[in-house]
Amino acid sequence: MEILAFGVQSDEKPLMEKAFAGHHEVRCLDVFLNEDTAPIAAGYEIISTSVNATLNNRVLQTLAAGGTHLIAQRSTGFNNIDLEVAERLGLTVARVSYYSPYAVAEFAWTLATAVNRRIVRASNRTRDFDFRLDGLMGRDLRGRTVGVLGTGKIGEAFTRIAHGFGMKLLGWDIVENPACVELGMKYVDKERLFTEADLISLHVPLLPATEHIVGSAALRTMKDDAILVNSSRGGLIDTKALVSELREGRFTGVGLDVYEAEAGLFFLDKSLDVVEDDTLARLVTFPNVLVTSHQAYYTVDAVSQIIETTVANVLDYQAGRRSENVLVPSAPKT
């Protein structure tokens, strides 16, 4: 059987082909699944999608009509999939419920330290042989307070690094993580965390309850010299409200690996296009803002684990097995 994989980056392709070798052929496409590309899947029982795929009602209808039965998404997040429609159409949907948390946690810290120490500005200057230090002053992190929203596996890994920096630890989650408590984390309500933290990092999933968890009210309560990092999902931050605060000269730095309207932009080369997203265009102009293209997960370790789990999801589906990765199970056969 041949598997059709959408949104495969050039670095991922050899890893995909190696992982599926001995099981199935895999056809790797660099285009993302959306309403325009969904007809390509006609005749494929199993497809694999990336986090930036669009799996709305129309796309799912097209997939089901074309004979697709399994959608194996290569990500932990699944807010891009209409699960109710998938279930109604009898489509099985699986995801990668776990992969290396260190990839994302380490990248979140890369963003935090980069904006704190003005690394991008310094690098751009030295390329022009400008070696002045004006405007490059950062702050020691030791002794300052970090606020971690979401203390699951990634949040815990981020917290361990913060502990290594010698920071005071504040956390917020619906369930406390004993490992974080052991490190000295104090769990508080969101409002106190926003008010007291010098550095805030987001590690919660995007759900209706967490959409714009960092909205205008939260942003206004943060310290003027706070650092804000988001390596989880773009919709956690009200970006227009963030731009408004940045216009007022607030925040030492903002590091964003995700953006709430990134679909159709991230993972693509738009360098020759006119970007119509005024909010993003304004956001990247601020000298204290660093935006990267959803690459926190992108290490050979994490991507290999994601692909291996995707292969396992395919094999489980074919064997009639169900794992924790299944979001919508196979329809019962009659």
UniProtKB/TrEMBL annotation:
<dbReference type="Pfam" id="PF02826">
    <property type="entry name" value="2-Hacid_dh_C"/>
</dbReference>
<dbReference type="InterPro" id="IPR029753">
    <property type="entry name" value="D-isomer_DH_CS"/>
</dbReference>
<protein>
    <submittedName>
        <fullName>2-hydroxyacid dehydrogenase</fullName>
        <ecNumber>1.1.1.28</ecNumber>
    </submittedName>
</protein>
<dbReference type="InterPro" id="IPR006140">
    <property type="entry name" value="D-isomer_DH_NAD-bd"/>
</dbReference>
<comment type="similarity">
    <text>Belongs to the D-isomer specific 2-hydroxyacid dehydrogenase family.</text>
</comment>
<feature type="domain" description="D-isomer specific 2-hydroxyacid dehydrogenase catalytic">
    <location>
        <begin position="8"/>
        <end position="327"/>
    </location>
</feature>
<dbReference type="InterPro" id="IPR058205">
    <property type="entry name" value="D-LDH-like"/>
</dbReference>
<keyword id="KW-0520">NAD</keyword>
<dbReference type="GO" id="GO:0008720">
    <property type="term" value="F:D-lactate dehydrogenase (NAD+) activity"/>
</dbReference>
<dbReference type="InterPro" id="IPR036291">
    <property type="entry name" value="NAD(P)-bd_dom_sf"/>
</dbReference>
<dbReference type="InterPro" id="IPR029752">
    <property type="entry name" value="D-isomer_DH_CS1"/>
</dbReference>
<dbReference type="InterPro" id="IPR006139">
    <property type="entry name" value="D-isomer_2_OHA_DH_cat_dom"/>
</dbReference>
<dbReference type="Pfam" id="PF00389">
    <property type="entry name" value="2-Hacid_dh"/>
</dbReference>
<feature type="domain" description="D-isomer specific 2-hydroxyacid dehydrogenase NAD-binding">
    <location>
        <begin position="111"/>
        <end position="296"/>
    </location>
</feature>
<keyword id="KW-0560">Oxidoreductase</keyword>
